[in-house]
Write a structure and sequence with these properties.
BirA Bifunctional Protein, domain 2, Rossmann fold, 2 domains, five-stranded mixed beta sheet, 21% strand, binds histidyl-adenosine monophosphate
């Protein structure tokens, strides 16, 4: 039988990749907590309506990328393609609309039927922060500040640029859409086929097109910023003033519209050149209309999500997993004592392995290979005298010690980073 393969666009997260991803997750949760974002989790699938309207029936995600299915009870369900709609649905379902603001942090797998390539998967992971219950532009700045600090402390901010735009409020967008609808049909036959389709469905998305032919036409297209209402303009200015004051670098990107329909006002992305075409590591914005789309009250909200796999690719290779100590058992009669010693070391918080090779030399070789700084060698003679041989792997120095003495030596040597001196 042919060996089984994973489904296209999915990946087994083997220890090396998983440890890189854990670094991203731990840093995200730590920084988010400094801003008051509290950890929460929503189900991996939802009723299809949770995503279809908020994300936009004509958005790529809903039109082409969702994993939707009917369950045995005939309900239409969708594997979540993103977290924001689910988090807002959860806030409403849990009756929290009366206790605002709420700040949530979440992490988990998302599902999009996209064409897989480096940094683009069909099952991928996001971390996200949602600040729900404020129309204040400072909330936008706070969310962007949190994203920037997260990337900075992960050591990747220097290779990312913050792109910022304002989509304005409903009124700004209606006038902009009307201007685009008046402008673009003149170029209908020159637009890419995707953009021709969007011309009727969602002309604003054309601004986001990466196709060369579209980019050329868009150079002369009416710009979103020109149609902002005074109120929307003020909102954007307050966000950018706050970012400037706090020393957060950003650049205006008038074509940034984001791929999901629920956005208004601030839209932003952190983009790197180091990951080829999938360079957006983090994206977000304000989504004041989302609550109402899900049957909730009028609530201001802003947030972001970042791709964990993309960030894991970007952070420097961290060192491999290594052990602290090897318990090297020299004869079979010492097996259970050796095992008990190893358990004791693990209970003390030391990463301990029992090398299983056939001969002493090979066991010690394995101990070096897996990064052990010390070996505790135990055999029949040592058991009789209640001692062990302690070997410092880097120098090869070795000394017989009582077990309690060996334990306190190991603690000093490994936990407190003191240079071990066996002759002490
Ligand atoms: P998004 O831009 O669709 O926004 O996704 C956020 C991030 O998820 C992207 O910047 C990217 O790093 C990662 N990502 C997206 N698709 C894939 C994929 N197929 N494979 C790997 N990584 C991917 C949202 O999802 C919004 N919910 C963000 C948000 C939160 N807006 C407000 N609050």
């Amino acid at each position: 039988m042919k060996p089984m393969q994973p489904v296209r666009g999915t990946a087994d997260l083997m220890p090396r990749q998983k440890s890189q991803m854990n670094i991203v997750l731990e840093k995200a949760s730590l920084i988010a907590s400094r801003y008051g974002f509290q950890d929460m989790e929503t189900p991996i699938f939802e009723f299809t309506e949770v995503f279809s309207r908020p994300l936009g029936e004509s958005s790529d995600v809903v039109a082409k990328e969702t994993y939707s299915f009917e369950d045995r009870g005939g309900s239409s369900l969708t594997l979540r393609p993103e977290g924001t709609a689910s988090v807002m649905r959860a806030l409403i379902s849990n009756g929290l609309t009366q206790s605002l603001p709420q700040k949530f942090f979440y992490a988990g797998p998302m599902f999009r039927y996209e064409r897989p390539q480096k940094g683009r998967m069909r099952q991928f992971h996001q971390i996200g922060c949602e600040y729900i219950g404020s129309f204040n532009p400072l909330a936008d700045a706070e969310v962007i500040g949190c994203a920037a600090q997260f990337l900075s402390e992960l050591g990747v901010l220097h290779s990312c640029r913050l792109h910022l735009n304002s989509l304005g409020d409903g009124e700004s967008r209606d006038t902009d859409r009307a201007a685009l609808v008046a402008f673009l049909p003149h170029y209908k036959n020159e637009l890419s086929s995707d953009s021709q389709r969007r011309l009727n469905e969602n002309p604003l998305r054309i601004l986001d097109s990466k196709a060369d032919e579209d980019r050329e036409i868009l150079k002369n297209a009416p710009q979103l910023l020109a149609f902002l209402t005074t109120q929307a303009q003020q909102h954007f200015e307050q966000v950018t003033n706050a970012l400037d004051k706090a020393g957060i670098n950003w650049q205006l990107d008038i074509n940034l519209v984001r791929g999901l329909d629920y956005y208004s006002h601030t839209a932003f992305e952190f983009i790197t050149d180091e990951l080829g075409s999938q360079g957006t590591v983090l994206g977000g914005g304000r989504y004041d209309g989302l609550s109402a789309m899900l049957g909730g009250p009028d609530i201001g909200a802003v947030g972001f999500a970042a791709g964990v796999e993309r960030l894991a690719l970007l952070i420097e290779q961290k060192q491999e997993f290594t052990y602290d100590i090897a318990v090297v058992i020299t004869d079979d009669n010492a097996a259970s004592d050796g095992f008990a010693l190893a358990q004791n070391l693990r209970l003390q918080g030391l990463k301990t392995d029992i090398p299983m090779a056939p001969q002493l030399g090979k066991k010690l070789k394995r101990a070096s290979l897996i990064g052990c700084k010390l070996s505790f060698i135990i055999g029949e003679n040592e058991i009789k005298s209640d001692t062990i041989q302690v070997k410092v792997m880097t120098t090869g120095e070795q000394k017989q010690m009582e077990i309690s003495q060996a334990l306190s030596f190991a603690e000093k040597f490994l936990k407190h980073g003191l240079e071990g001196n066996l002759s002490e």
